[in-house]
Every structure is written in C-alpha cells, then in structure tokens.
Predict the 3D structure of the following.
Amino acid sequence: MVNSAPLYLILLFTCLISGYLAAQPLKIVCHEFAPFSYQDQQQNITGILVEIARLACQDWPQGCEIELLPNKRAKQQFNQGLAHGHFQGWNEERALTTWFSIPLLQTEYGFYSPLAQPLTDLKQTSGKNIGAFGPSNTLTSLINIDRQQVRLGLPPMEIILSSSGDEQPLKMLHKRRFDAYYVNKEVGAYYAKHLGLNDLYYLSSGQPIHYFIGFKMKHNEYETIKAFNHLLVKLYQNHRFDEIFAKWKMIPSPLLPTEFPDLNVPY
C-alpha cells in the first residue's frame, strides 16, 4: 500500500500555494490603442488608462505589472489566465465570462469626415461608405446606428471593414477611400494629429461609452476584484485622478454604484 502524505501537510501545501498566488502582482495587459494605452517615442508604456491603473497600483498591496502586447497576444494571455486583467469596453457577451472594474472613464464614438465634404447630421451617413475597425465594439455600435436608420426608411450604409485601428483608416479617409471613418473620438483625434490631418470634421454618435479593466471570472477571485474596485472608488473620491484627466483632457465616468450590478462590476 502506498503511503499518502498526512492531511495536515496537504493542507499546509495548499495554503502556501494559495498565499503565493494571492501575493502575486496584478498583471494587466493592453495593446496599442492610443491615447488610452500605447508606447511613446521613448518606448515607455503610457496612455490615460495606463496612468489610472498605475496610480491605483501604487496603493494596491501586491502591486501590479502593466504590459503592452500585440492585440492578439494580449487577448490570448487574458483569455488563458496568464494575465489577470485587460483594458476593454463593456458588452453583454463579455459580461457572461468577465468581471469588470468600475468604469474608468467616459468617451464616445463618432464620424470623422473631410472638412470639404463634412457629415454634419447622422442621417447624412445613410447610403455613404463608412470605414470602421472590426470586429470590435466600435463596429457593433455602427451597425446598430445603421439598423436604426434603416428602420426609419433610410438607405443602409456601406460599411467598409479595416483590420487596423490606428492611423491606416485615417490615411484611407484622406485618400477618399470612404466618406467617413467611425471611431472612438479620442483615438481618431490622436492619429489625425499624428498624421497632421487638420481638415477633418467630427460628428458625435451621441452615445457615451465607458472603458474598464476586464477580469476573466475563471482566473480571478470575486473578492479580489471587489477590493480593487473599492480602492478605485476611494481614489476617485479623494480626487487622486484629477490631474490625469486634466492632462489627457478627458472625463471620468458618471455611472453610479447602483448601476454596477447590471454591468457585472463586483462592488
């Protein structure tokens, strides 16, 4: 008969392993998504979401690691549990398997079009060639706008998918490959400035969006994410993020704790 290890040794080993895992830094991955997360000219990881998380991590007992990776690799690490969190937008499908931080900031999607032929009303997007990065929440938002307009009896848009979400679609817009580019307002403004494109008109979708840190349920503890969210709320209440928002000229999310349960936010 093979001797088994005493029960107290098994329990001790389990506690040691659990304690080690709990003491690990919180690893957050992101991808190139300027000005929210990106690598600057000095090869430093920066962006407003990075700075918000980095400040919170200063007060998090175990600290954090923030790593910028290619988009596909960042998602793989997140989905496989090699990273605890990933900056992302909220949607119903993700909420089935993901807990979220409190909303970190509010932004919006909109249409950039040439100043010489601007789209100044949402109805003017009907029947036009509209570029968008996909698959993404951005594309889903655009499809919903298109469906709403079709229900009103307007012609559908011709949606042109881009596999890139950086400067490439704006270069295509500049060459008149499509009539407008639907994108996050801040992302479009960042890359337009980077390319020196000053002849663009911006039309808001009128629908605010929020960005979070997502945490896969099967790779994280509910109480850990809840504690991290309480820390974030405390820092917001103490105006610790004010300088960051002023620097990046963005605004915090106005969503209240009463809305957190519907968003799968442990709190």
User: Anything to note?
Assistant: The longest strand covers residues 200-216. Confidence is low (pLDDT under 50) at residues 1-22. The two ends are 50 Å apart (CA to CA). The chain has nine helices and eleven strands.
